[in-house]
Amino acid sequence: MTAMHPSTNDKPQVSLTSGPSLSDDIAAARRFLKYVDASPTPFHATANTASMLEEAGFIRLKEQQAWDGQVERGGKYFFTRNQSAIVAFAVGHDFKPGSGVHVIGAHTDSPNFQIKPVSKRTKENFLQCSVETYGGGIWASWFDRDLSLAGRVIVSDSESHQSFTAKLVHIKRPILRIPTLAIHLDRTVNEAFKFNLEDNTLPILGLATETLNKKSEAGPNNYSNEAVDSPTMSEKHHSVLLELLASELGCKVNQIQDFELSLYDTQPASIGGIANEFIHSPRLDNQMSCFCATESLINSVSDPSSLEKSSSIRAIALFDNEEVGSVSSHGAESNMLISTIQRLASIVPKDPNFSPTSALLEQSISKSFLLSSDMAHGFHPNYPSYYEESHRPKLNGGPVIKTNVKQRYASTGPTTFLVRRVAKSAGVPLQSFVVKNTSPCGSTIGPMLSKLGIRTVDLGNPQLSMHSIRETCGTKDVEYKIKLFTTFLDRFEEIDQELVVD
What we know:
Strand order of the largest sheet: 2-3-4-14-5-15-19-17-18
CATH topology of the largest domain: Aminopeptidase
Largest sheet: 9 strands, mixed
CATH architecture of the largest domain: 3-Layer(aba) Sandwich
Organism: Violaceomyces palustris
Number of helices: 10
Radius of gyration: 24 Å
Keywords: Aminopeptidase, Hydrolase, Protease
Oligomer: single chain
Protein name: Aspartyl aminopeptidase
Low-confidence stretches: 18-23, 216-227
């Protein structure tokens, strides 16, 4: 049986903790730019989050192994699943089995185009790649952009094909483009930009010249776990694409066994606006929440004494596949969070007087709390009729509590009250959002995780152009969110005593 293990070369390309001086009032926003630029896919976001945690002294665990004897009071830990989801937690010194877990939840994925399993297309001397839409993107925003590829590639460790590694790849130059049709050929293009998602969004990779489309010198992939008559990698994908991947990974073409590759925009995220009040960036939804959650957990335990009087567990859970329903083994509908709480609830301390009970998980869930963090709809001045008159969140006005009585969001009166108490302690302004009765409402990981019985509130920073290839939010809202999250992790144990609702 061959072994497959993740690459150890999953470190970010830039330091995510170094930044400008503390006098910079948008320093947190600038740190986020580094994070999002280094995270073109959920795999990279997870790897960068893991790197930040390791730099802060968190210890990597394996889900496949027993945690007894590894997880201790006062310790800081994390584990990953599928290389695209991550859970991190810190255990209070006074923790007892059955105590609560206070979690910030978010998701690592965003709408994009992904390369199909068989992508090779050629038309009129153009090399094209077949792609599949992921999530509910504003696909028109992907036209005429400088696109490239990033993701995960499974390669054999040698040409003997005895073991395999899942490596991350991030091609940092434009190699793909989805061009629009000239206005001279379609005079109606500005009336309504309509296009066929299957036929008109095929990215152009290059020209099918003899030089560009030559057969790979490495020859066909001579090893496959598929049936003998299955197509090889070089038959399914353009040889020039495979050669580029091999060059990036430092391997030979015939070592590439499979891949999961996403398109992304190579234009870096930036600070914009006349007074530097905006962030213009891809993947704000929802890597902004991932970044803020990670920094907040690290901040909350940066002082070793912060855990000394704590009897709970502070955690973040960053899931994949929210944009397509969270139904994967590493999405919010999976057992990733509940199994973590169950394992932590049943950790037996080295205490001879401790007598475990059969209801530790139920006790822990009843004491736990989840901040479901996604982005929120900021008020758009060009489309005022789409917003409820009294619920128009402003950029740089602070995080937004999202409420929906049809349970598309999980916020309740008690959970909202407690978060407002946290915000008051943090000195952070809060805003509110509900959709109009005539509008549909999106959803988050909040409602599906609240089914576990965990008290939940949905909130997020306001933004414009949600699900576009290029989104906009406020620079000051980054620091607001980090302050709110850090105070939640630091003080919720105390604030939770202010209101008891059975």
